[in-house]
Design brief:
64% helix, 2 domains, mainly alpha, single chain, 6 helices, Arc Repressor Mutant, subunit A
């Protein structure tokens, strides 16, 4: 299952807050704030999709994410590599390093990360 752009934005706020009531979510949105009914609809859809759950406190619901941000992002990156780069991480890395106009320092930092991962794999 996938989240819509509006659902992803709301999910970003949930990840940031970790758990929150409707009023907390409304507060974190920038102006112009969406209607309460809009957020309620998004939360219902996200709950139905299995991304969000809630605890009841009387009539109030405290919402929390069921999926970690890292896991969600990882799934999307894998999907991107599979569908746009013929399942080749090398093609993805090549595209990423060429098209994002990374500075020399950023490329060196990336090399350092790759070298660290290589060392981990050797262990």
């Amino acid at each position: 299952m996938k989240l819509s752009k509006s659902e992803e934005q709301l999910m970003q706020y949930l990840w940031k807050l970790e758990k929150s009531f409707m009023k907390d979510l409304l507060e974190i949105y920038p102006e112009p704030k969406p209607a309460v009914t809009t957020i309620a609809t998004l939360l219902k859809r996200m709950t139905d999709k299995g991304f969000v759950a809630y605890k009841l406190y009387g009539k109030s619901r405290e919402y929390y994410p069921l999926i970690k941000k890292k896991d969600y992002f990882s799934k999307h990156v894998h999907h991107l590599i599979k569908n746009f780069f013929n399942n080749s991480t090398s093609q993805f890395a090549s595209f990423f390093t060429e098209e994002t106009e990374m500075s020399e320092e950023e490329l060196k930092d990336l090399r350092k990360l790759i070298d660290q991962q290589i060392e981990k794999k050797k262990s």
